[in-house]
Hints:
The structure holds 2 protein chains of 2 kinds.
Chain A (H helix, E strand, L loop, with lengths): L1 H12 L16 E6 L11 H12 L6 E5 L20 H23 L2 E5 L9 E6 L2 E7 L9 E3 L2 E6 L11 H5 L4 E5 L8 H5 L2 H9 L1 E5 L2 E4 L2 E4 L3 E3 L11 E4 L7 E6 H7 L4 H10 L1
Parallel strand pairs in A: 1-2, 2-3, 7-8, 8-9
Antiparallel strand pairs in A: 1-14, 3-4, 4-5, 6-7, 9-12, 10-11, 12-13
Chain B lengths: L1 E4 L2 H4 L5 E7 L7 E7 L4 E5 L2 E6 L2 E6 L2 E7 L6 H9 L4 E7 L3 H18 L2 E8 L2 E7 L11 E5 L3 E6 L2 E7 L1
Amino acid sequence: MFDDLVWRVVRKRLVASRKMSRTHRKRKGVKRVVCAFQNLPKPFKSANDFVDRLLEEIRDDLVFADLLVLPRLAGNLLYGVWPVLNKRKIDEIYERLKTPYLNLLKYISKELSISIVAADVEDFKKPPEVYVLKDGCLIYKRDLSGDEQPTAVFLDDWAIAILRREETFSFEKMRPLVEKGVYTFILLDLEEEDKNWWVEKTGLWARSQSLEVFGVKASPFGQFLDRTFKGKSYVSAPVPLTPSLNGFLTKTDERNGKISVDLDLELLLKKRHENYKRFVSLFKET
Amino acid sequence: MTVLVGSSVSLEEFEEVDVFISWLDALPSSAKYSVLGTDKFFIVGRYGKEMLKRSDFEVVNILGKRFLVVSGEAALFPELFHFAKKNNATFVVAFNEVQNLIDLSFCKAKFWAHSQESDLVVFSLLYMQGKVYNNVYVPLRKSENQTGIVAESLAPVYLSFRDGTLVSEEKK
């Protein structure tokens, strides 16, 4: 009875009403990817609070941003909407946040006319679904705990693919997508272990070098209730496309949790080694 | 098994070398096996005698271990390393020519990535503007410093392997 009363109050706060708009300047062959909330912020007190803090974080990129990536746990932080948090009922709270969070993402995507990649609210039992939204509509979702294959998701004039962590350690699942014109791969991860950068590089970074593609890894850093997450986020690219020749276009650290990067797809296409098909047939013949 | 990656001049410093890997050089009689190559072709020899000459890639048996030797662009693709793995190779020897420092860094990154993905030991010889860079990569868990990089230098590298695992290294 009491819970229902609280829920009725909370539900209203989970609906965003903040007005927002932007003029989107599209550029030919260049796409700006912005990842927000990589350093986990304090819990949100309402959906409007979520929008306000998001706008504050991406303000400088608003005009050029083509894709907004939100990390896992971003939706869970809406638990702050509850006036008093009952940790024994936290699973129930996460469950109740799922639909309002998806609606909030649709709202942001529509109002800002921006594509969004974000994960569903985490239940910490299995990896969540990852959503891709465009113009306020959910155009793709992938269950990270299922066994379905990754597919190309088309956003206007470019394509992306959402990967599971295991898929980033081998070229095999990614090559068919590259053949379909996917050159941007996104991984939303959640890690409590603090891995060093060498270990980190064996994933998407290595595929950026071997397959010559862009990799966007978003893994939040910070405290969430009684757990500490130590994820590393970065955007990787083939070495010749990175100014410091280290294969990273950008990476986060404890002080800087924001990622904003331009992916030059046109330049990537010019520089790619496309001869592999000749060799693939040779490998089969041998 | 001892492996020397470098020029034939460096070979004189060692009494016994099982496998000598070098950018195009004369086939030395002092090494049991030699793998010499360029961006266009490679030669495998035994005690100074040519056993095999190829222009793309080949898996060869050397002292009970399988080596995939490759010249040129084929080595830039992960499919080759997958092929090596399927053919039970333990080592990959790649010869590539690069034009500038950017491509040099890119090739190093590629071979490091290939080594991590395929779990193979990779000897990458990169020729740039008259110099040969000797690079050796191993899977992270098999490298002493946990970086996967055994060598990235112009200097020769002398390595000892037991059952395909690196046991010691020495740079001259």
